[in-house]
Write a structure and sequence with these properties.
Blueprint: E1 2-3, E2 12-13, H1 28-40, H2 45-52, H3 56-71, E3 80-81, E4 88-89, H4 95-112
Antiparallel strand pairs: 1-2, 3-4
Helix pairs in contact: 1-2, 1-3, 2-3
């Protein structure tokens, strides 16, 4: 790029004959190949870039993104209120409600005599 005076008003213009080359985006297949090489080999980024045919900077961006997602901890479970006892729980069914229901069933069985043997008083 060079700056010119005159009718263009001092704006930057490309040199005559200069061609701006832009590579296409990295396809998903190439991305998988790069990630596979990053995970399984000890090649340098420049070697992977030459092998795959993308820039070294693109390899660095992909490697940083991979490290960022690997080091990120899993999302914490979301607590909500139990509809039965209104306690804070992370998963249904609520253990307190289950325990209370089990005790209630046992008491009912004891009252009805399901748990006792009638032949041996």
């Amino acid at each position: 790029m060079r700056q010119t005076k005159g009718p263009s008003g001092g704006r930057m213009r490309p040199r005559p004959g200069a061609v701006k080359r832009r590579q296409g985006k990295v396809t998903p297949a190439v991305m998988e190949e790069i990630l596979n090489l990053l995970r399984t080999t000890t090649l340098r980024h420049i070697d992977i870039a030459k092998q795959v045919g993308v820039s070294r900077g693109s390899i660095g961006i992909i490697a940083r993104r991979e490290r960022l997602y690997e080091s990120r901890p899993a999302a914490a479970p979301i607590a909500f209120r139990c509809p039965g006892c209104h306690g804070m729980i992370y998963e249904k069914p609520c253990r307190l409600c289950e325990a209370k229901a089990w005790i209630a069933r046992q008491e009912i069985q004891d009252l009805l005599g399901y748990g006792t043997n009638p032949k041996n008083p």
